[in-house]
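#dry-run=false #mode=assembly
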Amino acid sequence: MNGLRKFTDKIKPTFEKGGKLGWLGSTFEAFESFLFVPNTVTKRGAHVRDSVDLKRVMIIVVIALLPCFLFGMWNTGFQHFQAIGENAGFWRIVGYGFLKILPLYLVSYIVGLAIEFASAQINGHQVNEGYLVSGMLIPLIVPVTVPLWQLTLAVAFAVIIGKEVFGGTGMNIWNPALLARAFLFFSYPKSMTGDVWVAVGKNAQAIDGFTGATPLANTAAGVDGLGYSFADMFFGIMPGAVGETSTLCILIGAAILIFTGIGSWKIMFSTVLGGLFVAFLGNLFAPAAESALAIPAYYQLVMGGFAFGAVFMATDPVTSAQTECGKWVYGFLIGAMAVTIRLFNPGYPEGMMLAILLMNAAAPLIDHIVVNKNIKRRLNRAKTI
Amino acid sequence: MSEHIQIKKGLNLPIEGEALCNVTKSVVPDFISVKPTDFRALTPKMLVKEGEAVLAGTPLFCDKQNPDVVFASPISGTVDAVIRGDKRKLLEVKVKSDGKGESVKHQYGSISSLTADEVKKALLESGLWPCIKQRPYGIVANPNVDPKSIFISAISSAPLAADFEFTMKDEFAAVQAGIDALGKLTKGGVHFSMEAYVAPRSDYHNLKGVIFHTFQGVHPMGNVGVQINHISPINKGEVVWTVDFFLVAAIGRLFLNGVYDMSRLVAVAGPAAKNPSYVKCLPGTQMSELSEYFCDKCDVRVVSGNVLTGDAVGKEGSLGFYSDLVTILPEGDYYEMFGWAKPFRFKKFSFSRGYFSWILPKSKKYAMDTNTNGDVRAFVVSDVYGKVLPMDIYPVYLFKAILAGDIEKMEELGIYEVIEEDVALCEYICPSKIEIQKIVSDGIDLMLKEMA
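#status=ok
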């Protein structure tokens, strides 16, 4: 430990301004502060500071994502062996999933972090830790079969256009991970719809009758046509994006986020309320039992990316509503809009992504209204006295 | 009329080294510093020269804009040095004690017979006027303004703050006299706040001539700004005066004894304080006189005031005018390997549950140091600040309006209601390590400049 510190101190001057590798200053700083909490001290104001920093906040979100990540690995393998009609042991299933997901993560982190480091270096900033979470999220919300070159472009788009042009983490308007998914969805729709959710593999042949369709694609036939039971969908044993199938694992993540206070329970809760509200209205006005509208409202919560979006995407502190009142409105509208899109626009089965991106754009407006109410209250107070 | 108010948002910082309730030293000073920098936005004008003899209560300098407001020497002796900084800015006037303790003598009749103008004149000529601060901005009050009301907080909720139950227990008569005098200066009454569980057992709930309030909860409930926001918030164009509890006693002593007597009990506390306890001394006391309380094993930071808002004056500095606390902290200029990644970090406190220190009993105190525990970032987690600001204010929107220099928005969002100390906890918990008090301070400076 001391040895590493001594070594770091020895090579530090090389990377400082005027040093031989001075142009790599931000990169060096990023690695140094990754290894060591820096020795900076307060100058004025609050002389002592809380032990939480952004690195800690981000790593907790990553930990909250781990159950989804691990289950996604298993489910990827499981769906594969189901599709080819083979019985495989637990470790073979997990091993297959691991090999399928690994390239997605390599692309996500290498491309994303390279851009983050480069832009920090160009601007002379410190490298921000925000991508730790975005990079973890992106592979979890794409189909496992997505071509890697497309993923590369999507990640680059999300980081550059979604974040760096606004000034980096904290300044962005849209959730970068969702932006990557939206990029794929609109640029390469073939990779995002149809039989893309299960990795069959090049050398394998899917068994007869295999469709690989997600429950969301089958909603038109009503609840009996989904092809999966509620329990299957709750535990996540169905095709879908890598990490978003298991509502159970998402709930574990939600518990971690709520308990540590990092994710807003208000947003999660109101999103669920909004989704249930619209789905329930749909139930009331369903023309027939074989209609998408007739699917029981609570099914909407376990299908597709609803739960994952509500817990991990909608709660992004930067792009969500930031006032406590605003969070209720923001969450409710996300849920309501996501289910509305699902029910009435079969062309876009996954409404969650679009709903969140749309509400990301509307969040400043919601906050503006809430804050203006506060301003009015302050002015009225002056008048009444 | 009295009111009971609960403050739920906030945090009592569990920091080690609380002062024990006994007086371990009475400082007889060789030197005293009077610092114009203790008073926000003051442009001082010297009234004495180096080498001139002064008494306790002799004006040393005055406010250039308002020459009636004078700042006096707390001891008798000779002006030893006038210390200036860049652009000849007056930093400090040092007075060498002659050990005689002679004071300028004033004669006033009974307070009830004095008029408001007489009280005002007495406070101005004696040098006690600067005890009165005004909101907005937290500057020395302008004597030409009629305040809406006057607020006194008898709650010490700040980390390691001097315990008023101990320091003020023999001051009842002086405080009553001070309140009688202050009551003459406003038609809106003198608001006096105490902690709910202290009030019944304290003499001070028998004070006459005050509007009594009790508070219950967590820091920053003791901050007078928070109390004003709950009792009678400041609107644009209104002015409220505030006086520190222990300075009310100093005002009372002027009318009872006719002298400028600023002596007070000061808590010497903090994780790096040896034998944390109370010291009787004057404002401007040199920190070197307190060196026996500094931990000698580590590099210490000496703060005049509390850890959240005090000034790092250094070992050679002096006690501030408004200060009844010296906090001694270990410097935190060390590297901690994988600090942020450790699952357990029991020696570090966190307001969030991001570390497992929430498992530990609530009574555990932490040896906090001055390490920032992370690098500076942009605002990311924007909703944490409201959790420690018990006011009807949207903190991040106010901070961003200040950063943008948008005066209209600053007014609308509540710049008149806060000073630095009110947002100190926001700065403490900020995961992005932003200097929020500096932002608010710059905002107030901008308002003072633009509204002048």
